[in-house]
């Protein structure tokens, strides 16, 4: 059970390709299915914990804090288990170093914003609108890449961003027309999209502090989050709300809370697994298709009726996101295939 890519990824990719076609197809189907089930289940479970009429618990920060706590404990447990069973499990050694924790802290603040705004968005909007509400991540990726990294974007990529923005505004308009729009939830969705983009950018800068290990970064991010959430719980009065909660001693409640934490941990693993067995491009396409399936399931589960324009807004967001992924993949492939002018010049000069 390898939870950490310590071995050579190129060697692993070649080993996967050498397997018979039917075996590879079966593995890919199982991995993609695992990603879909984990991701969709996590969204529906979080919606239950955050906004269930039967639960009636208004503590979104505590729910997020508890999920971070579960992830921290799981990381530490797997690290300890790997130390005792080095041949059976591949997981990095985790020891809390305060200097590393301080180095990761700026990213952890962004990470806290990302997971908190995600949950707050889900609390105030329906699962069906959740993907549209957080659909501006790609747009923020392009904007922040230019502002922070000075990276320009092609016309075709900008065109796909325009489609996403159009789908987002149409979705907001249709939610308003149906009387189900939450401006608070939509604002949290936009902030979540911004934090997701910032998290991707700053993760690359912070990775050297944890020796390039995603699992070490996950551990330190969640440890920092647990510490930083504590004063928020006190300031927002959620601890008092929790003490007055009628189901505080319920095994079902804590079981669902822990299950939510397990799904939060598992999504990082199955995402890496899907990329390993397919490719980053295929992973993005799979994520888009999963979002579409999740929207349909939400409409059916909650017995909602949506207009043609509402569905059009979803198709615009999903289509624009897929088109952006394809355009960026095509551009990167073209850059790899076409040598730069400087390389051509060196080759002609015999250098």
From TrEMBL:
Q: Which gene encodes it?
A: SLC35C1
What residue ranges are annotated as transmembrane?
21-44, 64-88, 100-117, 129-148, 155-172, 184-202, 214-233, 253-273
Topology term for the membrane = Multi-pass membrane protein
Tell me the compartments it is located in. Membrane
The record's GO CC annotations read: membrane
**Keyword Iron recorded:** no
UniProt domain Sugar phosphate transporter: residue ranges? 27-321
Name any one Pfam family assigned in the record: TPT
> What's the protein name?
Solute carrier family 35 member C1
Recite the UniProt keywords alphabetically.
Membrane, Transmembrane, Transmembrane helix
Lineage, highest ranks first:
Eukaryota, Metazoa, Chordata, Craniata, Vertebrata
């Amino acid at each position: 059970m390898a939870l950490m890519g310590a071995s050579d990824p190129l060697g692993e990719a070649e080993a996967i390709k050498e397997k018979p076609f039917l075996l590879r197809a079966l593995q890919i189907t199982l991995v993609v299915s695992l990603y879909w089930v984990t991701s969709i289940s996590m969204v529906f479970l979080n919606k239950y914990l955050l906004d269930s009429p039967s639960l009636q618990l208004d503590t979104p920060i505590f729910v997020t804090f508890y999920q971070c706590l579960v992830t921290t404990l799981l990381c530490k447990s797997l690290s300890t288990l790997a130390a005792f069973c080095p041949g059976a499990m591949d997981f990095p050694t985790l020891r809390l170093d305060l200097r590393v924790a301080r180095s990761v802290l700026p990213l952890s603040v962004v990470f806290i914003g990302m997971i908190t705004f995600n949950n707050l968005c889900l609390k105030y909007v329906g699962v069906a609108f959740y993907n549209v509400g957080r659909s501006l991540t790609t747009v923020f990726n392009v904007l922040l890449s230019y502002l922070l990294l000075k990276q320009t974007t092609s016309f075709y990529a900008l065109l796909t961003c325009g489609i996403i923005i159009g789908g987002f505004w149409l979705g907001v308009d249709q939610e308003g027309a149906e009387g189900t729009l939450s401006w608070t939830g939509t604002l949290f969705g936009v902030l979540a999209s911004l934090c997701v983009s910032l998290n991707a950018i700053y993760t690359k800068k912070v990775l050297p502090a944890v020796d390039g290990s995603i699992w070490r970064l996950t551990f330190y991010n969640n440890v920092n989050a647990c510490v930083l959430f504590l004063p928020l719980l006190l300031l927002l009065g959620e601890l008092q709300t929790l003490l007055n909660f009628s189901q505080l001693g319920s095994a079902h409640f804590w079981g669902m809370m822990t299950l939510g934490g397990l799904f939060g941990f598992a999504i990082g693993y199955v995402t890496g697994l899907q990329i390993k067995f397919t490719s980053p491009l295929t992973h993005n396409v799979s994520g888009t298709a999963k979002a579409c399936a999740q929207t349909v399931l939400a409409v059916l589960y909650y017995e909602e009726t949506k207009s043609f324009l509402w569905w059009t807004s979803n198709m615009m967001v999903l289509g624009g996101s897929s088109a952006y992924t394809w355009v960026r993949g095509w551009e990167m492939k073209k850059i790899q295939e076409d040598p730069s002018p400087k390389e051509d010049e060196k080759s002609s000069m015999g250098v």
